[in-house]
User: Fold this.
Amino acid sequence: MNDARTGIDWRRSASSDHLFVREREWEAAHTVWLWVDVSPSMRFRSTLAPVSKESRGLVLALALAELLARGGERVGLMDGPPFTGRAAARRVAEMLLGDTSDASLPPNAKLSRFSECLLVSDFLEPIPAMAERFEEIAAQGVRGHLVQVLDPAEETLPYEGRTEFAASEGRERVIAGRAETLRELYQERLKRHRIDLTDVTRRLGWSFIVHHTDRPPEEALLAIHSRLAGSERDYRYRPPRPIAGAEPIAGRRP
Amino acid sequence: MMTIGAIGFLQPWMLAALAALPAIWWLLRLTPPSPQVVVFPPTRLLKDLKSTEETPAHSPWWLTALRMLLAALIILALARPVLNPDRQTFAGEGPLLLVIDNGWASAAHWAERREAIEAAIDRAGRDGRAVVLAPTAPGQPVSDPLSAEQARERIGGLTPEPYAPDRAALAETLQKQFGDRTDFSVFWLSDGLAYNEGDVLASTLKKLAGDAGSFAVLSPEKDGAALALGQAAGASGELAGRVLSGAAGPRVGVIKALTGRGEPLGEVEFKIAENAVETTARFDLPLEIRNQVARIEIADERSAGAVNLLDARSQWHRVGIVSGESREAAQPLLSPLYYVQRALSPYADVITPTEGNVANAVHDLIEHKVSTIVLADIGKLVAGTQEELEAWLASGGVLIRFAGPRLEQGGDELLPVALRRGGRSLGGSLSWSTPQPLAPFDEKSPFRGLSVPEDLRVNRQVLADPTVASDAEVWAALADGTPLVTAAKQGHGYIVLFHVTANSDWSNLPLSGLFVEMLRRVVTLGSVKSGIETGGDASSVEASPASRVATSSSALSPLQTLDGFGHLTAPPLRAAPIAPDKIDNIVPGPDHPPGYYGPSGAARALNLVAAKTVLTPLRPIEGSTASGYTLKKPMALEPWLYFAAIGLFAIDILAMLFLSGGLRLRRPAVGASVAVLAAAALISFAAEPVRAQESAPDAAATPTPEDFALKASLQTRLAYVVTGDAEIDRTSEEGLSGLSKVLRARTALEPAEPMGVDLDKDELAFFPVLYWPVRADAQPLSDTTLAKVDAFMKQGGLIVFDTRDHQTGLPGAGEQGQALTRLIGQLDIPPLEPVPATHVLTKSFYLMHSFPGRWDGGALWVEAEAQDEAERSERSRRTDGVSSLIITSNDLAGAWALDQSNRPIYPTVPGGEVQREMAFRAGVNIVMYALTGNYKADQVHVPALLERLGQ
Assistant:
């Protein structure tokens, strides 16, 4: 009863005794903003992983760009214009080639409302700095998806003996007399960092995906895709059904 | 300068820095090796871990120890250490009195002594001291106080003398010359031996040193103590050296036996036991060699004392003893030979021939090159033996004859004197005379110097015929002047006659010790079939024994003498002759240095070491500083320490690399190599059982050579060579099997199933025919296989080579031909020819013109018909004229091959069963040819023979 009179579909209503109200849906192409961390820390690759984090991140971003462009969406880098059509992924790649920034945080770019952004990084910056930037982005009405790409070595700290750890950015150095004694503590610390990060994203309503470079990229891509499609609640990573006699493959929590 | 043990430090204060080592230790513990650096993005997270125990990581203890060692080495090097520093010092102001033992004992290490002397003179020169040189050898004067330069010149002429020093005389001289002074720096370079002079010299020197001076004695170390060499009493006749040491053992060394020319004859090791000063080493030399030994010496000990000269007395002789009767076994104590044998066996090699026949016995002995023959109571020798003995005597033999009842009845020519028939009996019951003692020996007699026992009596003897003039010498006589031992020179040899028996029948001489000595001296006269060299003079080899005896009564003048270093040289001017009877007792001195005395050829040796000589070490002298000779030069250790430090530094660098990442870098490599090794091991382990499984049934199925031989020989079989190509081998088998069927059906030959032959392993001799298909890729045969094939062919076997390629040309053309060349090119292949029309092969069973197989047209090659008759007969004798090989290219086996139901397997080209039939016929002909030889060839002549017979 609250419908405007202009909303009545007269042509339809004339053919019967009922009044029909025309409801319109705005069908616009979605915009997805991509950001891939290309700072030095992303170039890390341990002996446990086949590729560097940066390479995996770029692969994920470009694959997603291609998928989205095929789906008719608009894809763009956060500090550039969005592209559409078949050449979108190529354009994105070209722009990524020219990206020389080594910032570890996504730029505070002006983004259109109701768009989504995909942030690919290792997210090892301090939580407050990251939370602040995410909030700025979220304040523009943008929904975000974080993909944390980590090297397995960063997860497990597989070093032994007297080791000096040097940060890839900055001058931080940590000398460990026996690196193996730090392993437990470090894993604990990384877990807490991730929990903090998850808290931030949950507050913002964003999604958070962890991907390791020793895993196939399709895994992460599928997860991202399902999240972008809004079906993340239905998405469950199920470990493959154990084959009789074969060793069960342990599933990893995302 | 500071000394610790054998090491002195030129900068000892640097050693104080060693005290800083604990501090260095602490510092090094604090400074860990640089860590492995890892670029790690989440370092910030790590940094947040408060509990990162940044405990100062310690260096590993071994690294610290390494560095400590490095530091210590550098400190030690800076302190400039010297090995064996020069540390004798003088005290006082007075001149340096250098007392130098220059007797024989100091010769062995004279060079070191010279160095010590020169070092002392140098130091005296630096101190500006005068030097007094006092050699202890007898007859050498004590010098006046000399400047260092003069002293250096003077000691240049100082050499060790070949005799013992006379310290008592020197003490006297010193006392006389410097008795009133006390402040000498006395430096006694002793040879470490005491010479029964007591401590008179030591006390004199002590007095000369007084309180202000110093008194140092240098004695050789244990290993440098003088060694002396004597001759051990040769009781059992071997040559033995008696080694004396100036210090208690243990000491080892080598004694060498040399000829007069210095050629080595033998060596024997000696070993002086711990706490002993003497040992005996025996040479094990054959007699001929042993008698050539002119000197024995201790190797590497160059002194007159370490040389022992041998003369003729010490030679070892071989004596043959012959008796005319055979009482020996039954009554040994009455045997004429018993005493002679007992007397001589310690000094000579005594041979008693078993031969009863005297002539043969003497012959045998001369064959054995005896130098002396003893004939006991042999009256007359047969003429031949006499001549033989004469020749032997002329070359230097000594014939000793003893009288006896037979000789009494008349002697032969080989006697020094003519004998009266019938002997002389003394002191018989019907006689006035009494048994006679011996007169003292004449100076001309070789028995001179021997003492005659009082109780010696001669009861009976044979007498020389005084009417016959004789040039015989009387070597021993009875107290009444009757000759008891007469001798005559014959050629170079001697005939010596004892006018009594060799047993105690006629006298008690054989029971006395004199008998032993007399025989011994007589035996030493014997020379020399094997070229004994006496003395040091090589030219005296041929010396005549006559001169030995004739001239030896006069004084023995020095012939050659030893110098201090043990070299034989011309005698010094001072050397004086020695009376012959004194030479055994004289002590060598300046007038009589050790060496050879007497006429060349019969020289007597005078040695430093006599039978009773012992060496006593010099006792430590109270009030003196004693030390050894500085036999090692001072050596700076500095550079070596630096080298060691650099080496350690390099190790340290490597260790650092290892600790800080080198290990990590290598780890994958190590892992990889481990993996590779493991994989290889796995593969080999895995492969092993597989191979075992493969080989197990194989081994079970493989027949033993016996089985193979039985199978091959119990029935006649055709054989083919297994080529390794399965298809060819199968065709061969089928082909030969088919041929065997045909043979069974058509001929008297009933071969069993064919066999494959492995050329490398199997014996070929069982098969008359060997079918050998040639593979295109055949490899050359090994040498042993080639030899086997060659033997097979030469011994009548027939090998059919089938190149199976339808080559019409010569063997060798085409691929298969090359393969054939490879196979048998090294064999001794006779010339070949295509089968001539008249060849036996064409008619050995069937009459054939060609020999087709699967193919037709290829020629069949056989050994060419021998051109000349000789070769032909040779071949027909060896192989019955059968060619040892047949080469075809027609693939015979392919044509022969039949299946189970006797149907041919392969088509023939150009074709037709006619060709197959001809192929079978060719096969039958070949087999018949191999089995029956050329007898069919003889059939050819039957018409001619029949015609000649007129039928």
